[in-house]
Design a protein that fits this description.
8-stranded mixed beta sheet, 8-stranded antiparallel beta sheet, mainly beta, 1 helix, Jelly Rolls
C-alpha cells in the first residue's frame, strides 16, 4: 500500500507539473500570437485638439501613415458618407527582402472593425516590382482590379461614396487619369461611417507585418470627405495624423502637415521596418 501511495503521489505531482507547464506554454503562445498579429486597424482616440488647420494630434500605428478624420474623436458619430483623394503611383525600389506598400482612401477604419477602401499597391517580391489597383471591404480580403493596368507615374483619383443610405449601398470609384482606365462599382456594405482615411500602409501579409517598400514620397491631393452631409477639405475637419512606426516607436515614414489650403499632404519613406 505504501508503494501504491508513493506512486500515486508521484503521479499527482507529475500531473500538477504538467498542468503548470501547459498553462505557461498556452499563455506564452497566446501573447506571442497577439504580438505577431496586431489589428491592422488603429485605435485612435486623441484627446488633444488641433492648434490650426495645418496641425493635428498624432497617433502612432504599426500599419498606417497619413491622416484620418471624424466628426469628433472623443464621441464620433456615424456621419461620414464620402471620401476622395488623388496621388501619383510611386516607383518602388528593388530590394533583397520582399517589400510592400499600399496607398488608399477609406471609410470606417479608425474606431471599429469595418473598413471600405480602394487604392493602389506597390510591391517588390523576389526582386520583381509590381503595381496594381484594388479594393477591400473588411473582413473580406482585398480584391485586385484586373481591368486596370497601373504603372509608376500614373495619376490616380479615388473615391468612396454612400449612394443609398437605406440600402447601405456604397460606390467605389478609382480612375487612372494617365491611361484612361477606371473601375466603378456598387457594393452593399454595413460600414461604421465613423471616420475617413488617406493612408500609406505596410500591409499585413500572411498574418505578419510586412517590410515597407521604399516608395520615396507620395503626395495626397484633392483630399476631401463628406461629414454631416457636407463635403469639406481634410484641413477643415477634425483630423489626426497617423504616424507609421515599428514596435519600438521608430518612424518608418514622415508625414507632413496638411497644406495651407487644407487639401494635400505628403508621406515620405524613411526605413522598411
Amino acid at each position: 500500500m505504501k508503494k501504491n501511495l508513493v506512486n500515486r503521489t508521484v503521479w499527482v505531482s507529475a500531473a500538477a507539473v504538467i498542468i503548470v507547464i501547459v498553462i505557461a506554454a498556452s499563455t506564452y503562445y497566446y501573447f506571442a500570437y497577439i504580438w505577431s498579429n496586431p489589428n491592422p486597424s488603429p485605435s485612435v482616440s486623441p484627446t488633444t485638439t488641433p492648434t490650426s488647420s495645418a496641425t493635428s494630434p498624432v497617433s502612432t500605428d504599426l500599419n498606417w501613415g497619413g491622416y484620418g478624420v471624424a466628426s469628433d474623436f472623443n464621441n464620433p458619430q456615424p456621419v461620414v458618407t464620402g471620401v476622395s483623394g488623388s496621388w501619383v503611383v510611386p516607383e518602388v525600389a528593388v530590394s533583397q527582402n520582399d517589400t510592400f506598400s499600399a496607398i488608399w482612401v477609406g471609410i470606417g477604419g479608425l474606431f471599429g472593425k469595418t473598413l471600405i477602401q480602394t487604392g493602389t499597391e506597390q510591391d517588390c517580391i523576389n526582386g520583381a516590382v509590381s503595381y496594381y489597383a484594388w479594393y477591400e471591404l473588411l473582413p473580406s480580403d482585398s480584391v485586385t482590379i484586373t481591368t486596370m493596368n497601373v504603372s509608376p507615374g500614373d495619376k490616380i483619383s479615388a473615391s468612396i461614396t454612400l449612394s443609398d443610405p437605406t440600402l447601405d449601398l456604397w460606390t467605389i470609384s478609382i480612375n487612372d487619369l494617365s491611361n484612361g482606365q477606371s473601375f466603378n462599382q456598387d457594393f452593399i456594405y454595413a460600414a461604421g461611417r465613423l471616420s475617413a482615411e488617406w493612408v500609406v500602409e505596410r500591409p499585413t501579409v500572411d498574418n505578419v507585418l510586412s517590410h515597407l517598400a521604399d516608395f520615396g514620397v507620395v503626395t495626397f491631393s484633392h483630399c476631401s470627405a463628406e461629414v454631416n452631409n457636407k463635403s469639406e477639405n481634410l484641413g477643415d475637419l477634425h483630423s489626426v495624423e497617423l504616424l507609421l512606426s515599428n514596435r519600438h516607436r521608430n518612424q518608418l515614414v514622415e508625414v507632413s502637415n496638411i497644406s495651407s489650403d487644407g487639401s494635400s499632404f505628403t508621406v515620405k519613406y524613411l526605413v522598411s521596418q
